[in-house]
Amino acid sequence: MDCKNISVDQTKREPEYTRSNAIPKQDSEYRYLLTRHWDDTRPTVCYIGLNPSTATASDSDPTMTKLATAANMMGFGGMLLVNLFPVRSPNPSDIDRHDSPKGSDADSYIEDAVDSAEAVFAVWGGKGKQYTDRIAEVIDIIDKPVCVLDYNKDGSPLHGGARGEFYNRLSPQPYSL
């Protein structure tokens, strides 16, 4: 799907989920995949974040809620959320303190999520800039165009937890390193 052909309907808001899942389902050291679906007649989007925070199969967090709302506003009926680093922490600096922040299966979950989605968005934010090698590894896995919701002033992809006028900033465009 061409990023420039994705329009944003500012009248749509947070969807009501019909299905949700997380792998693993329970709260654990890693979360490889989080899904939310609300309309199976519409395409699915894959978001690639930095690292998972607190959302689970049954509980949402603010970032996940914003991303689902953005997906709904862009005409998607579901989302798959994977991360550069699946180590779960509300503090991204924990990535550097962890012995194995990538876990054992991160790349396979990213590849499967990307293959299952009609569009892919980078949403790792400014803190991702310090992980250029990991970003390059993940981009090499992806065999379709990668989009951003918008760019931050520092050139990084807008993070789903961005404060301020997040929804007004939605402007799908191609990702570039």
| Number of DSSP E strands | 7
The major sheet is characterized as: 7 strands, mixed
> In order across it, which strands form the biggest sheet?
1-2-4-3-5-6-7
Query: Pairing-aware structural class of the strands and helices?
Result: alpha/beta
Show unreliable segments.
none
The share of residues in extended strands comes to 15-25%
Distance between the amino and carboxyl termini = 19 Å
Oligomer: single chain
Determine the mean pLDDT.
93
State the helicity in percent bands.
Answer: 10-25%
What is the global morphology? Answer: globular
Total helical segments: 4
- Taking all Cα atoms into account, the compactness measure Rg is 15 Å
Organism: Salinirubellus salinus
Protein name: DUF1643 domain-containing protein
Keywords: Plasmid
Notes on the protein architecture:
InterPro entries: DUF1643. It comes from Salinirubellus salinus. The protein is of the alpha/beta class. It has a seven-stranded mixed sheet with strand order 1-2-4-3-5-6-7, sandwiched between helices. The protein contains four helices and seven strands; from the N terminus they run E-E-E-H-E-H-H-E-H-E-E.
Brief characterization of the structure:
The chain is α/β, with parallel strands linked by helices.
